[in-house]
């Protein structure tokens, strides 16, 4: 016999202790000061920008953002690799365990959704007649529905991209009609949600838990957390993953041709070549760059003023998480075959980091020029490049002190 309540309690206490231990290294005094100043300046600029707005498609943009955070509703199970062997015969006794995991995940997701709604609250009070309390209650109900569907897909019937798209589309429609007070359409959407939930539950009862899929998802979550911590301190549990990126193969072929030619730039800079391939293929560096750049571009395009400070926030978040790229291959025995010093590796990392920052700065500057004109474009370009240069100086200082 196994007590699911006690097992979850032990796993949860160990998980919280690990997060708190690494959190002390991440949220030091300097980072907290920067976050405090950044949030304060961003809040002032954001409030002034909202006050100056005359018209804004709030219902459309807010429905997409709220739906995005409501659709992603995976359950943190805190499972370990050995559970697929030792807990497999005790699957029926683990219902209290997974029930508590669902409750914990629900409140964590709800907390994130609440923060997002607070960020949109000034816009909501100005451009929507719907009560904020009604939106919060609807968010809670929609989060519960998404978590129920997501859990059955992850744990039993398997994931499907079409199902994810359908849930996201229904979430968008639900929030949009809620913000514009079209309750008749909301009733139809709720009826469809009930039908989908009953269908998913009926299919889920026919199969058992997909342990490999649950373990893979939990492993991915923990590795994402470890990659974030890895930018501040060494993590012994870090496991590197490599993705093929088939649609970027032409970039690698171009680099390979340059690499095979003697006396070319990349031939003389093997570490640069290594860091470029690592950025595109390893972990989630490229995906992180794309997501933060896309989010920053959307807000730069929509905000009337203060776009350069939001660009600074996105560039800082990108640069901080890309710092772990420098030590990604540290300790690998094949690196000792390179007849190069650590100084060359450091210079190559600086080149790659500055190139990434320059590309992000150009994207933000182009969006700022399209939406706001020449001066915001130049200011955005200068601030983003200054952020990456400051980050490079920080890396240089840390290397000299080491």
TrEMBL record:
**Transmembrane segment boundaries:** 30-47, 53-71, 103-125, 131-149, 161-177, 183-200, 285-303, 309-328, 349-371, 377-395
Keyword Disulfide bond found: no
Keywords from the named record: Membrane, Transmembrane, Transmembrane helix
Highest taxon of the lineage: Bacteria
InterPro entries hit by this protein: EcsB_ABC
A single Gene Ontology CC annotation of this entry is:
membrane
Name of protein: Predicted ABC-type exoprotein transport system, permease component
